[in-house]
Amino acid sequence: MTETQATVDSVLAMLRAQPHDEEQLEQLALEAHLLPVGELVYLLESRPETEAAVLFRVLDKDRALGVFESLPSHHQAELISALRTPQVAEIIGDLDPDDRAALLDELPASVAERLMHGLDADERAMTTTVLGYPRHAIGRYMSPEVLTLLPTLTVREAMAHVRAHAEEPETVYLLPVVDGSRTLLGVVGLRRLLVADEEALVGDIAHEAVRARATDDREDAARRFFGAKLLAMPIVDSEDRLVGIVTVDDAIDILEQENTEDSARTSGSEPLRRAYLSTPIIGIVRSRIVWLLVLAISAILTVQVLEVFEDRLDQVVILALFIPLLTGTGGNTGNQAATTVTRALAVGEVRVRDLPRVVWQELRVGATLGAVLGALGFLVSGLVYGWAIGTVMGLTLLSICTMAAIVGGLMPLVAKRVGADPAVFSNPFISTFCDATGLIIYFTIATAVLGL
C-alpha cells in the first residue's frame, strides 16, 4: 500500500467516525494536508454530503480554494448548501466570474442571491454579465477580466502595462488589441511582445484574431478554439466589441461535458450530474429508465413485423435462425455510420449542407460491406442449408448493410438540422429502426426467392 493510499484510508476512517470532536478535526486536517489536490477532489466527489462538508471545512483557505475550483459546479453547490460558513463566501469571491456563474446556476435562488450580495460591486457586475448569456452560449464560459492593449502603444509601454496589471486578468498569454470603443482590432501574444523592437507599435505587430461571438454555441466555439490551436480566444458582441476571453481550461471543460453527454446518450441513457460512486441508486435508475422505456416501446415494431410474417416462419422454420444475425448486423452497421458522422459533425468535417454527399458516401460504404458479408453469408449458409437459403442470406445482408449505413449517416444530420442532439438520434433509435426495417427486407426477399 502506498503512503498516499494509507493517508486516504486514514482520512476515510476519520470521516466515518461520528460525531467529530476538536481533537479529531485537528488530526483530520493534518492528514488531509498530506494529500494532493487530486485525491481531495476525488474524496469530496465520492463521499456523502455530510462527510464532504467536514473534510472541506478542515482545509486551509488556499488549499480549499484550489480544491473548490477543481470541483464540478454541482458538487460546489452541494458543499455550499452543507456548509453555509464565512469560509465559503471568501472562496466564492476568489473564483473567476465564469466559474462563479456556473456555481450560481446550481444553487437555489435564495442562496444564489445572498452570495451575489456578498460580492463587491465589480465582481457582482462581471458575474451578472456572464449570467446574462444563454446557458449553452460561449459567453457563459468567458472571463470578463481581460487585459487589453491600445494599438498606439509602443512595445515598451505595452510591457510596462502588462507588468502593472498581470495579476488581475485570467491570462496574459494572449492580449487583445482594441480601440477606444473596445472594438477588437487583433491580438498579440506575450512572446511576440518580448521579442519585438521596443519602439515598435502594438498595432503593427498585432495579427488577426480568431474570435467567437458571446452568443455562439459553446461546443462550436470550443471546437474552433482547438482547431486553431489557441491558448485563449477573445469573445466579442454583435458589434465586434470585446466582452471577454475564453482560456484553454474553459474549452477543455466544455468539450469534456459535451463528450460525456454524447457518450451517455449514444448508449441510451442520460449523463449523471455527479460522480458515479456518490450518485444515489435512484439517480442512476432515473438516468436510464426513460430511454429503456422508449426503446422497449420502439421494439414493439419488431414484434409486429414478426407477427405479420408469422406464416412465412411456419413454412420455413429455418428462417428464424438467422434473425439475430441479421438484426445485429444491421444495427451495428447503422451505429458505425452514425458514430462516424456524429464525430465528423462535432469537429466540423461535415455540415448539414453536405447531406447528399454523406448519403452517397454511406451508400457506397454500406454496399461494399454488404457485398463482402453477403458473399460470406451466401457461401456458408448455402453449403449448410442449401443454395436457396444462401441466396436469401446473401441478398439480405447486402440490402440491410446498405440501408443501415445510409440511415446511420443520415440521422445525425437530420438531428442537427432540426436542432436536436445528434447523439440522441444515434445508436438506440437506429438499432430499433434497422431491426424492424431489416426484418421487412429479409422476409420480402425470402418470399420472392423461396416462393412463399
UniProtKB/TrEMBL annotation:
It is found in: Cell membrane; Membrane. The chain crosses the membrane at residues 289-309, 365-388, 394-415, 427-450. CDD domains: CBS_pair_Mg_transporter. Residues 142-205, 207-261 form the CBS domain. InterPro entries: CBS_dom, CBS_dom_sf, Mg_transptr_MgtE_intracell_dom, MgtE_N_sf, MgtE_transporter, SLC41_membr_dom, SLC41_membr_dom_sf. Keywords: CBS domain, Cell membrane, Magnesium, Membrane, Metal-binding, Transmembrane, Transmembrane helix, Transport. It is a multi-pass membrane protein. Pfam families: CBS, MgtE, MgtE_N. Homodimer. Belongs to the SLC41A transporter family. NCBIfam families: mgtE (TIGR00400). Acts as a magnesium transporter. This is Magnesium transporter MgtE. The lineage of its organism: Bacteria, Bacillati, Actinomycetota, Actinomycetes, Micrococcales.
